[in-house]
Predict the structure.
Amino acid sequence: MSITNLKKTQEDDESSPPPSVTTWPTTALAEVVELAAIGPCGKGCCDGIAAPATCPELRRPVARTWPALPNLQALVLGALSLGFFLGMWYLATHYRLDWYIRFNNIPTPGSVFEKALELWHKDQFLVNMGISTRRILIGFTIASVIGISLGLLIGRYRLVRQLVFPSLEVLRPIPAIAWVPMAIMLWPTNEVSIIFITFLGSFFPILLNTVHGVNSVDPVLIRAARSLGANEFNVLRLVILNGALPHIFTGLTVGMGVAWVSLIAAEMISGQFGVGYFTWEAYSLIQYSEIVIGMITIGVLGLACSGMIRLLGKLLMPWIKPHVGGEH
Amino acid sequence: MSLSGQIAIENASVSFGQGAARIDAVHEVSLHIEPGEFVTLIGPSGCGKSTLLNMVAGFMMPTSGSVMLDGKKIKGPGADRGVVFQQYSLFPWLTVRKNVEFGMRMKGLSDREPAARTLLGLAGLLAFADHYPDQLSGGMKQRVGIVRALATSPQVLLMDEPFGALDSQTRIVMQQILTNMWQKFRISVLFITHDIDEAIFLSDRVYVMTARPGCIKAEIQINLPRPRTEETMITPEFTRLKLQLRKLISEESLKAMGGELKDGGLEGFSVEVGASGVSELI
């Protein structure tokens, strides 16, 4: 079909009087374009080259109907999974199982739930949650700002890399928790030293992933930007940053996880206030339900934080196709 | 706007590395492109075609000799020379329209959208203005690439095997679109290809390059009337040019592979051309 159309277009071109320079290219182009617009799906949405999968007309309905069923399935299976876990917890604690693992002192789901309702109405617990969240947000934000900017510079400029990277490589293997005594000595208040530990935990994953992201930017994109008149600042801001963004978000996700690990450890060791402190204090005071509540709270807060990063990533990177994992 | 976009390369040589590891990519090449002319460079792979184009683009400087645009020495990349790359080079994080607007944005132009839409319309891509590059086929991506390069109103369009990754059917359509856009914008084009049909179909003039170190082996004027169509490709003149170019190029391709063409047949491998490692193997 394409060939005959092409020939027809050309015959028309030849039989018509020689058009002026200003008019014919547009009309001839329109014909070529029309020809180009007829794709395999016959709706003119592809240009004859596109595989059916890239044809929006064909793709959309598939995308719309497909997820409906698995969503229900995922919901049922998810509920089953959680139900099984809660059931095992209940059975083990209700009958006070004592093999090698001892469930003697572990509270039942019911008593934990009752305690949680009670705590929810006390300000102190909410204050602990708020303080931990604030420490995470401050430490993580500072780590993101410094990690991303330094990562961009290290990735882009050899001079900066050679100057800064060696000392960072020396510091990197030291876990954030190992910094606790040093941090207490370094910083004027406990609060600042805990934030510093949180910062340290998230800083390296963010930095290293940013550097990796910068290195992964296709050099042809930089050349393209240059040939379109971009100066070095715009190359860095518009090409390198955007090109590295997927890796940066990997760094942020990992960094957020490590930030929580570091925060909880720091709170347990040196803290006043915070969910980590709350959990450790509950252990010291033999308040078994509170231990579990502390753990669950840490899990929920961590989940919420990584969810926020994922959401931010979706908002900032609308060009990334959603990843559907697991085909079977 | 006065007619500009004249490119003059004079005695340009490019070499990489130093001492024994020194490789001459291009040796004393002189060529010129007149304003509004469509010139193609053709030659065996690795002959330095891309090196020449990269010098005009400003990505690379000649080791000796000069590369000039409208009498001025080229010092670096710039929006006065649009580049279309062999690989897809659209910014994946920008929509098609924003990709086209990129150059105008760098120029500090406001009100970019109407201009971008007009250009996209000419390439038949208006319906895809808000798509991301990942959602386009290869042919569409290269069309956006051409439109993006034209959006800054350059004096010269540099195209490095832009259709190399496309299937032959798509190529023909792309060649038509390119010819039409070239005639509309009346800018100089330096086009690189290893496809002989493509070179003849598109060009006013074809330079044939030798195997490395690349230099100009022949310069062939293509006097086929325009507009050229598929019928042009079966005319005796087209066939004659094709044969002439094919002979010139196959000589060089064989040389590049280490063989030598004598009386139409292959005669062994010449030791002087092949690497020492190869001669030891023989």
In short: Chain A has a mean pLDDT of 81.
